[in-house]
Design goal:
- The complex is a heterodimer of chains A (582) and B (327).
- Chain A is an alpha+beta fold and 582 residues long.
- Chain A is built from 17 helices and 23 strands.
- In chain A, the strands form seven sheets. In chain A, strands 14-18-13-17-15-16 form a six-stranded mixed beta sheet, with helices on both faces.
- In chain A, helix 15 packs parallel to helix 17 and helix 16 packs antiparallel against helix 17.
- The N terminus of chain A is likely disordered.
- Chain B is built from twelve helices and four strands.
- The chains are: A alpha+beta (582), B mainly alpha (327).
- Chains A and B meet through helix 7, helix 10, helix 12 and strand 16 of A and loops of B.
Chain lengths: 582, 327
């Protein structure tokens, strides 16, 4: 994932296992009373209350890619759309490791898989209604998935269904171009049952079912890309009005049945979202009390950060959770002399992790990273292969040894790609350049526009080779909290693409590839998955194809007007589903 | 020049033209008269002195200051990403303070930035002037279909979406070409982009001037004595065009400085860590650091402001001195 479509987890050390099947229809956790304080909402629910009424106002400095649940890839929107669209599965609303569990949403129970791993069956809750009073059936879920195949109309969401499903999934064009066609690999034998037939075994199906694309859409009300203006609600709120690029307003859904999704609540009377506001103005109004939430959930600007951190009372109303995003630099395995692993290791040792951390926003912008996946992906074990934590200023002595082993004792020259319109990328590229110069590694910086960074430049191996781009900046957030979801696009040999490549290091290591395949084999246990996750993480670091910089954090301001405020670790921001106002 | 109704107390009367005073009357060339006029224009002279100072800074300054790429982590408060101490961390070692995030010395970055910004502006202006004068004189003097073609060409250039073109061109440019690489190549690329698209402004003015000059009596006189095209162009027209060329070059330089700053601001200018004024402004604004460390924006902004103002004031003064009627 490249932009703010960061879906990931917050940082909680000591995650043991993610229990999926045994959850049943888990209700909301009983909130523990708390008086607030810095980082209070990371470990508990702040200001728990069942008080109803009032208006919650959100603002954000940009616009959502779409408010259509089938057409969005932003983390904040996967969080927010649950207010009006309930997917088959969803994440539990609770702090800490508890919030990483995927639990039933519209589904009555987690999906069941056949012994060959190829067929997944879900039963949806009976007698549920849309906001217009019509009943929700499994056919509405199937239609919601079918319409995401129309990539020319709904351009933004992920494409897991196209990859996973069997039958005509590879060539089906969606219901707009092909109104008589049918997605043959999804069956709805009765109004409460939906069956998915997969092309090959896939163990992470419940995570995919938690993507908003599975929220039901009634075929009769679908208007293609314009469905976002008034999506028919299957959540506690429904659209009242939408002024495109300016504001949208949600009001209570009269047909809402709280049993449909216990992870969200219907407390406030009204929810207003202001779009395209000035980022610094949002922070000021958030602190002054004019609005209650920055919808993007990516943290305050540097001015407000200085203000919050220098005032003890404001700091007590803030949280700095790990967002689940990792900032790192790709190191290419094909560009000489970096095709020699010792030259790549020299880069890993020589990098100054402190200046990199400063480039990515300092200690409140992220913790120094020493592994290729963040500490909150299931199966994570901490290690420090390249002394990132013990010698954060860099380890030039070890770097020199590796350079000698590589056959370039006095260093070498290579190119580094970065996104020149991103201040943090630009700062990181310069910080790395300054850190590598003393050991003789000269970086020539090449800035590219972020909009075409993957499609035209760093994501095109032929361009990378011809322009000698040995290093490239990157950032990643997983679509679900699992090592396969994290690593598949980043390091799998079969993920290397001729354009839009996300395995920019071009790693094709059989150890990594086979471990990734084993993770989705039928009948794989959680303990085996954890072992594999650690194996992949260690091997990727040994291969030295990713120089991790920081596990990103975002300083969030917790408005005192709000009740039930808790950081949902999967989204890495406040849980928008349970908020109320005093 | 209109005579002042009331002569200011400190201003001498038109001694140049009147030739008053104890000295013997002596003949003065047009250039000398212009210089006398310019010297009495205190604002223009101040601008000129600033320009000379800036050029000296750009040439010898980088040898006198520290390395602009050295990080000073100890001078930065990582929590707020801003320099320790007031006014952006001003100290004896760092007279203009240090950059947020990195702690790089601001004075050395401004001085090194002056070199790149002025180099690009001067070279781009020179390119624009050469192309503009040649095209303008050809169009104005020969007229006919050549004039029509060149005039339309100028329209095309003026209507060209230059920023989009610049962004695209910098994107597709290889790392090394024409025996140059990195910033060496990038500087020439920027000079080409800025200069090659600024010539129509100069070309239009020169064409207009040439059109009116070629009908003047002294040109007719030269022609009637048998002078041919090249002689008329170089000996009769060009000396009379030096005034506008000089004036509009001086006024084109600040435009080009701003354009270079804009390109750097958009990220298609000089490659970091080489500092430029526009790049520094861009860092301050896009990273939002201006809000926590205003000096980071004020210093390069002031440098651009002073430079553009000095060139504009000097250019205005020069125009008044060379062509009093235009006042």
């Amino acid at each position: 994932m490249r932009r703010r479509r960061t879906i990931g987890l917050a940082a909680f050390s000591g995650i043991t296992a993610l229990v999926l099947a045994a959850c049943g229809s888990g209700g909301s956790p009983s909130p523990s009373p708390t008086s607030g304080g810095y980082n209070a909402a990371i470990s508990s629910v702040v200001a728990p209350s069942s008080h109803k009424g009032g208006t919650i106002t959100y603002s954000q400095s940009s616009v959502p890619d779409s408010t259509d649940p089938g057409n969005t890839y932003y983390a904040f929107n996967w969080n927010f759309t649950r207010l009006y669209a309930t997917p088959l599965m969803t994440y539990k609303s609770c702090p800490g490791t508890c919030g990483l569990q995927v639990v039933p949403g519209l589904a009555a129970a987690p999906g069941t898989v056949s012994s060959d791993g190829l067929t997944w069956t879900y039963h949806i809750k009976p007698n549920m209604k849309f906001s217009d009073g019509t009943p929700i059936t499994s056919a509405d879920v199937k239609y919601a998935i079918e319409r995401t195949f129309a990539k020319d109309v709904l351009v933004n969401g992920p494409s897991y269904w196209q990859i996973l499903l069997a039958g005509n999934a590879a060539k089906y064009k969606g219901p707009y171009k092909d109104p008589k066609g049918d997605l043959t690999s999804v069956d709805t034998p009765d109004p409460t049952t939906i069956v998915f037939h997969l092309a090959k075994p896939f163990a992470d199906m419940n995570y995919v079912a938690a993507i908003p694309q599975t929220a039901p859409v009634p075929k009769a009300k679908d208007k293609g890309a314009n469905y976002q203006l008034n999506p028919i609600s299957s959540g506690p709120y429904m659209f009242q009005s939408y002024q495109l690029n300016k504001q949208y307003t949600l009001v209570k859904n009269p047909n809402w049945n709280p049993a449909l999704n216990p992870q969200v609540k219907q407390l406030a009377d009204k929810i207003v979202v202001n779009l395209n506001a000035n980022a610094n103005d949002i922070d000021n109004r958030l602190i002054a009390g004019g609005i209650q939430m920055d919808q993007a959930g990516t943290g305050v600007q540097s001015a407000a950060r200085a203000r919050i951190l220098s005032s003890p009372s404001l700091k007590a109303s803030s949280d700095d959770p790990i967002t689940g995003f990792l900032w790192f630099e790709y190191i290419n395995t094909k560009v000489p002399p970096l095709n020699n692993v010792h030259c790549r290791m020299a880069v890993m040792y020589a990098a100054n992790k402190t200046t990199l951390q400063n480039a990515y926003g300092g200690p409140y912008g992220g913790d120094i990273a020493s592994t290729a996946m963040p500490p909150n992906i299931v199966g994570f074990q901490k290690f420090d292969l390249y002394h990132a934590l013990s010698k954060p200023g860099g380890d030039p002595a070890s770097a020199k040894q590796q350079l000698a082993a590589c056959g370039h004792p006095s260093g070498f020259t290579t190119g580094m790609a970065y996104r020149s319109d991103r201040p943090r990328d630009t700062a990181a590229a310069q910080a790395l350049q300054a850190a590598l110069a003393p050991v003789g590694i000269k970086l020539q910086l090449h800035g590219y526009p972020s909009g075409t960074y993957y499609s035209n430049y760093a994501g095109v191996p032929a361009y990378v080779h011809s322009h000698d781009l040995g290093i490239a900046t990157g950032g990643w957030g997983a679509d679900w909290p699992d090592a396969w979801g994290w690593f598949q696009s980043l390091v799998a040999g079969n993920a290397i693409a001729s354009a839009g490549n996300t395995n920019i290091g071009e790693l094709n290591d059989p150890v990594v590839n086979s471990a990734l395949d084993k993770m989705q084999a039928p009948g794989v246990s959680q303990a085996e998955k954890n072992t594999l996750a650690n194996q992949i993480n260690t091997q990727v670091m040994k291969d030295a194809v990713m120089l991790p910089a920081v596990y990103a954090k975002a300083l969030l301001y917790r408005s005192p007007d709000l009740t039930n405020v808790v950081v949902q670790p999967y989204y890495g921001m406040y849980d928008y589903g349970t908020l109320g106002t005093k | 020049m209109t005579a002042p109704l009331e002569a200011p107390a400190d201003a001498a009367p038109e001694t140049v033209l009147a030739g008053a005073g104890a000295k013997a009357i002596e003949g003065r060339s047009l250039g000398q008269i212009a210089w006398m006029r310019l010297r009495r224009d205190k604002v223009a002279m101040a601008g000129g002195i600033v320009i000379i100072f800036l050029i000296l800074v750009a040439i010898i300054g980088p040898f006198l200051v520290q390395d602009p790429t050295i990080y000073h982590n100890n001078l930065i408060n990582p929590t707020f990403s801003r320099p320790n101490g007031p006014l952006g961390g001003i100290s004896a070692a760092h007279p203009l303070g240090v950059e947020p995030v990195t702690g790089r010395d601001m004075l050395s970055r401004v001085v090194n930035g002056a070199r790149v910004s002025l180099l690009i502006a001067f070279l781009a202006t020179a390119l624009a002037v050469v192309i503009g004068v040649v095209m303008g004189v050809i169009a104005g003097y020969f007229g006919g279909w050549g004039d029509a073609v060149i005039a339309r060409l100028m329209d095309i250039f003026l209507a060209f979406p230059l920023l989009v073109f610049a962004i695209a061109l910098v994107g597709v440019m290889p790392n090394s070409a024409f025996g140059l690489s990195g910033n060496g190549l990038r500087i020439w690329l920027l000079v080409f982009i800025i200069g090659f698209f600024a010539w129509p402004y100069m070309g239009r003015i020169i064409r207009g001037q040439t059109l009116s000059l070629r009908e003047r009596e002294f040109v007719d006189a030269a022609r009637s004595l048998g002078a041919r095209g090249p002689y008329v162009l170089f000996r009769e027209l060009l000396p009379n065009l030096w005034g506008p060329i000089l004036v509009y070059s001086t006024l084109l330089i600040p435009t080009n400085i701003l354009f270079e700053a804009a390109l750097s601001y958009l990220g298609v200018g000089i490659i970091p860590p080489q500092p430029t004024w526009g790049g520094m402004l861009s860092d301050a604004v896009s990273g939002g650091y201006y809000a926590i460390d205003p000096m980071f924006m004020i210093i390069p902004g002031f440098a651009i402001f002073i430079t553009v103002l000095a060139f504009n004031l000097f250019g205005d003064g020069l125009r008044d001195a060379l062509d009093p009627r235009s006042r």
